[in-house]
């Protein structure tokens, strides 16, 4: 049985197969290949895009979705998450989608289940389905020709699980990852080129990925205000100019902090395309893990 905890759980060939299925799901009407299957979503952190994307993907494939309200679950009565998941597993679901603030938590649940676990985000560690939909968006834009492309991931690269998954996944497909962040948000590694300001590298880029400042993950205040941060890290039309660059963001976007209002309207900004692609990618992942689990 296969799980999706991190992007390395799928080989390059498996990822390309997922992309092929996602491409078909984008073109076709809903079907019932997962009719009779039950998918449980278990989100211990707030989510709009990821949770609804999984649920819409599942329903478009004919599956039933059970979304557990963690606030009113037995966890609020002191039950451990391991017992919660073991009890859910005893009800024989076909997949469990988990988001949790603790790094490594989805990995630790694998021994308590008889169905695939899909990591919908764990702390600062990983967000594999987001990275896969990001790569798919890039690949579709460049007709599969990703080798040699350069991306700058801009913002809180230290705390972002999206940045973490993307910096592990994108190089496997020939994309050079560069990180742009203030010193307080820098990723502590020499594995990637790092810059303080995107203007240092923008003329070399094919892709920019803007990130949301992960304020809820900070113990210290690094900027007087988000507007102060935005002076150097907001992606604007003035910054991008007429360059042939596409702009991504995992959402939610802090307008005029991460990306300017004007740039969000620019056709080079692919934020809503990412959302559309996310449903198709998650549908393809559900299909793969559920139908191949035996």
How is this structure best described in words?
This protein has helices spanning 12-27, 49-60, 81-90, 105-108, 128-141, 161-169, 226-233, 237-240, 261-264, 271-291, and strands at residues 38-43, 64-68, 95-100, 117-122, 150-154, 176-180, 193-195, 207-210, 246-248. β3 (95-100), α4 (105-108) and β4 (117-122) form a beta-alpha-beta unit. The protein has two domains: 7-126 and 275-291, Aspartate/ornithine carbamoyltransferase (Rossmann fold); 128-274, Rossmann fold. With 294 residues, it is of the alpha/beta class. It is globular and about 55 Å long. α5 crosses α6 and α5 packs across α10 (271-291). The mean pLDDT is 93. The strands form two sheets. The protein has a five-stranded parallel sheet with strand order 7-6-5-8-9, covered by helices on one side.
């Amino acid at each position: 049985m296969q799980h999706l905890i991190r992007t390395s759980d799928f080989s390059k060939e498996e990822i390309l197969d997922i992309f092929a299925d996602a491409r078909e799901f984008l073109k076709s009407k809903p079907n019932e290949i997962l009719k009779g299957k039950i998918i449980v979503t278990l989100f211990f952190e707030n989510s709009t895009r990821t949770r609804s994307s999984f649920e819409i993907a599942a329903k478009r494939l004919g599956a039933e979705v059970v979304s557990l309200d963690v606030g009113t679950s037995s966890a609020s009565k002191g039950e451990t998450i391991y017992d919660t998941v073991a009890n859910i597993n005893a009800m024989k679901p076909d997949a469990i989608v988990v988001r949790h603030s603790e790094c490594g938590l989805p990995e630790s649940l694998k021994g308590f289940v008889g169905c695939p676990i899909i990591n919908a985000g764990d702390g600062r560690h990983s967000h594999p389905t987001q990275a896969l939909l990001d790569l798919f968006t890039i690949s579709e834009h460049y007709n599969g020709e990703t080798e040699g492309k350069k991306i700058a991931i801009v913002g809180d690269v230290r705390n972002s699980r999206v940045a973490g998954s993307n910096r592990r996944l994108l190089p496997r497909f020939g994309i050079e990852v560069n990180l742009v962040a203030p010193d307080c948000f820098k990723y502590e590694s020499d594995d990637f080129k790092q810059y303080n300001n995107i203007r240092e590298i923008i003329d070399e880029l094919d892709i920019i990925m803007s990130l949301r400042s992960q304020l809820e993950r900070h113990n210290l205040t690094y900027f007087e205000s988000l507007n102060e941060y935005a002076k150097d890290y907001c992606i604007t039309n003035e910054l991008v100019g007429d360059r042939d660059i596409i702009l991504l963001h995992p959402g939610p976007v802090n307008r005029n902090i991460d990306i300017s209002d004007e740039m969000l309207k620019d056709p080079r900004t692919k934020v809503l395309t990412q959302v559309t692609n996310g449903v198709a990618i998650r549908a393809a992942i559900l299909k793969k893990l559920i139908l191949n689990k035996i």
